[in-house]
Amino acid sequence: MDNQPIKNDSDQQKAEVPDYPEPPVYNNKQSDTSIYIILGFVFAGLGFLCCPIIFSVAGIVFGIIAYSKGDKLGVWVIVASSISLIVGVALGFYYTNKMFQSGGFPTLPPSSGPTPPPPSR
User: pTM (2 decimals)?
Assistant: First the structure.
């Protein structure tokens, strides 16, 4: 057996490894939040057209997520979705009230086609 002390080769290994440059750091903040901005505006539009309580609230949530990640456009998504929510609910109440005042759901006029024969007894 050799009674020689074990040498620490870490100094030699460090000297042998060449110095590579640091990898570049990319700022992907805008591309990370752009999907939230797009979805927020899409849901704001859908909330104006139908189901404002579901779609507009989803647009508000996407706007909050985008703003919390540092995108200032998230504020506009929140504003657009909030306006969509208020206008969509107001239009829904207006047309629902108008529908019930006129006698309920609209019906089709009677057809002018051939009439069925009377039931036989």
Answer: 0.60
Cα gap 50→63, rounded to integer Å: 19
In angstroms, the first-to-last Cα distance of the chain is: 119
Model confidence pLDDT, tens digit, residues 101-111:
877 666 666 66
d(CA 69, CA 90): 32
Closest by CA position to 60, among listed 38, 43, 48: 43
The first and second tokens of residue 61, run together, are: 């949530």
- CA torsion sign for 68, 70, 76, 81 is negative
Helix (H, G, I), strand (E, B) or coil at 54: helix
CA angle 72, 76, 80 (to 5 degrees): 160
CA distances from 56 to 5, 25, 28, 61 (A): 73, 36, 27, 9
